[in-house]
Amino acid sequence: MFAEERQNQILAELKTTGRVEVQVLAGRYGVSEHTIRRDLSALESRGHLQKTHGGAVALATAHLDWQGRATSLPEAKDRIGRRAARLIQSGETVILDASSTTLALARHLTVRPLTIITNSLDIAAVFEQEAEVELIVTGGAWKAPARALRGQATREVIRQYRADWTVLGACALHPRAGVTVTDEEDAQLKRAMVAAGLRTVVLADHSKRDQVVAHLVLRPEELTTVVTDEPWPELEIVGTQVLTLLRESVEKT
């Protein structure tokens, strides 16, 4: 059995049981414990799991706080941000949701004339010295754990604008469940952002893949474009355009 196949089977077991043990895996696959530890290290480096003494546990990124999300898969998020930036043209208006991946996108949108609307002070700081950027910060109630401005006042500001693009982060993304988040207030704001944009793009690294949490943002049929770091054929099957650095797929009609 090739390493990639073995690692995929380990991931499948993690999704089912939530944890795996080195000794058990070594016996099952007929390889050394050193080989299994190497497999787990490779999977950990890609953000799929967290190694523990004697095994590993699934990494539930949907429930991480801001600091946890910001330090999870930074290289993947930077690649996603760079790819998403290619969609946005000079002179356009862009709504940027408060997330660690949209922050990565913001860093690739400097030095071009844009109108940026955001509920993130971190994203606002990226553009504060950019003379060609018209920056609109929504205001609202500051939610420190999420590093975001939220609430009724934030939603009312968003409803006053129209944008060429709405760009969202996601706690979880599933071909049958759509885009979901852990906080109802966040879901309400994201839905207002979607309503204000002509086109919506979701940025999601592979750790959000096939995950579901409580509060709905976009149904599967509403999910038109996703920018991610790995191919995702299951999303393409249901008609979503999936963009990665490696390839582009044409949206199904």
TrEMBL record:
Species the sequence originates in: Deinococcus hopiensis KR-140
InterPro entries for this protein: Carb_Metab_HTH_regulators, DeoR-like_C, DeoR_HTH, NagB/RpiA_transferase-like, Tscrpt_reg_HTH_DeoR_CS, WH-like_DNA-bd_sf, WH_DNA-bd_sf
SUPFAM superfamilies: NagB/RpiA/CoA transferase-like, Winged helix' DNA-binding domain
Name assigned to this protein: Transcriptional regulator, DeoR family
Sorted UniProt keywords: DNA-binding, Transcription, Transcription regulation
A GO MF label: DNA-binding transcription factor activity
Span of domain HTH deoR-type: 3-58
Gene3D superfamilies: 3.40.50.1360, Winged helix-like DNA-binding domain superfamily/Winged helix DNA-binding domain
Taxonomic placement: Bacteria, Thermotogati, Deinococcota, Deinococci, Deinococcales
